[in-house]
């Protein structure tokens, strides 16, 4: 029971992180492209990598939450290893590389991505389809997915609300009609 | 197995998340533009001007006499060379409160009439500061600036970067907090 709860919890947290990161990357691919280029990839491949990474994160998050099988768990682990490798690469290059991971919220690439590796390993090595099976399991998975999406949306709205108010002030100061 | 409806719902949720993230990005970009261009509507007290004028009679500097509302009168310094001033006047649309007077300064004599006509400023609501006589006397070098008076004594001078900021001062009686910090405490 506890193990099942823990596994659901880990999958939910990983899903939230990947949904937030993936949607950010697709919404603002420019900042991710800059990060990819600074890590040593060519300018030509950066656009594909940025978009591909964003899509991969969304796909892995969705399948992890909706169909908690062995493949999504291993894919999550693979993404975590990629993040840690990017952090290690930034440390090796001894450069401050801005991470476009969560729209700049996570600062620069480095130790933070490496420190997250045990979490991704825990998610990746956890038992797939823990505890339950059949219809109950499917409804639980949908609830997990919706909960993760709502958490990401709420987090965005929390940051968006004060900025929208500030944007209203900007509109007035530019002389737009009230 | 996922049904088609469930798949569509999941896809819609994912698209909504990306759209929300894009909105955050747009707002962040606007915020960056605002910071870079310095556009704001903050009413900032002109400390040097306030210190020079505080407690003095506005008539002593050539300010026109005005009907007060609740003891308050306001003088707005504008210039045809100031884009913000034009925006504020456009928003006023010729509707000047009776306790607000416009002092037009730093202008070219040959073009000021056309500018005033275009800005829809009634003659009764404005004074022309020829050769920057008033501005030079008080050391004013920034427009739009508002000088706020109470009971025929000047209280403070501040920049008003927008029509909304102007109305905040003139109609709502807003006073920058820095004014209160400067009021000397008299100890007997």
Short note summarizing the structure:
The complex is a heterodimer of chains A (178) and B (188). Chain A is mainly α.
Q: Name the chain pair whose interface involves the most residues.
A: A-B, 34 and 32 residues
Biggest sheet overview of chain B: 6 strands, mixed
Helix tally of chain A equals: 7
Radius of gyration of chain A, taken over Cα atoms and rounded to an integer in Å = 18 Å
The topology string of helices and strands of chain A comes to HHHHHHH
Number of separate strands of chain B: 6
- The first-to-last residue Cα distance of chain A is 57 Å
SSE-based structural type of chain A: mainly alpha
Task: Determine Rg of chain B (CA atoms, Å).
Answer: 23 Å
Overall 3D form of chain B: elongated
Helix percentage of chain A: over 70%
Q: Which stretches of chain A of 5+ consecutive residues score pLDDT under 50?
A: 173-178
Q: What is the beta-strand fraction of chain B?
A: 15-25%
Structure description:
The complex is a heterodimer of chains A (178) and B (188). Chain A has seven helices and no strands. Chain A is mainly alpha-helical. In chain A, helix 2 crosses helix 3. The longest helix of chain A is centred in the last third of the chain and has 40 residues. Chain A starts with a helix and ends in a 5-residue tail after the last helix. By secondary structure, chain B is of the alpha/beta class. Helix content of chain B is 41%, strand content 16%. Chain B has a six-stranded mixed beta sheet. The mean pLDDT of chain B is 83. The chains are: A mainly alpha (178), B alpha/beta (188). At the A-B interface, helix 1, helix 3 and helix 7 of A face helix 1, helix 3 and helix 6 of B.
